[in-house]
Amino acid sequence: MNDHQGVVRKLRTTSRGKCIRTRQAIKLAIATIEQLEDENRSLWAMLDEMRKSEIENHSEKLRSEIEKVVDKTKTLLMTKTGEA
Q1: How far is it, in rounded angstroms, from Cα 38 to Cα 40?
Q2: Mean pLDDT throughout 12-26?
Q3: What is the distance between the alpha carbons of residues 71 and 51, in angstroms, rounded to a whole number?
């Protein structure tokens, strides 16, 4: 259990037997905490996807550049061999 879940549990316990306004305020606080936790999880998932995509994009570009260098090297080697 994370800290937020403990806070929500304490708020729920505290809200029992209090006046209506206090219960409403605590319910609103709980709803807000839960919404923020959900948004936080979503943002972390989105960030992970962005990082994964970024790595995939960079590795494809790197692979392409390596292929170009290999092709140029082959061309240079063929040219020198043919001249000798």
Answers
A1: 5
A2: 79
A3: 30
**Residues with Cβ within 8 Å of residue 26, at least 6 apart in sequence:** 11, 12, 14, 15, 18
- Kindly tell me if the per-residue pLDDT of 21 is higher than 80: yes
Domains of the chain: which residue ranges? 3-83
**DSSP structure string for 25-56:** HHHHHHHHHHHHHHHHHHHHHHHHHHHHHHHH
Q: Which two tokens stand for residue 80?
A: 């020198």
Cα distances from 7 to residues 23, 44, 70, 77, in angstroms, run 15, 21, 59, 69
Which letter does DSSP use for residue 18 in this model? S
In this structure, are residues 18 and 29 in contact, taking their beta carbons and an 8 Å threshold?
no
Supply angle C-alpha 51, 52, 53, rounded to 5: 90
pTM above 0.85, yes or no: no
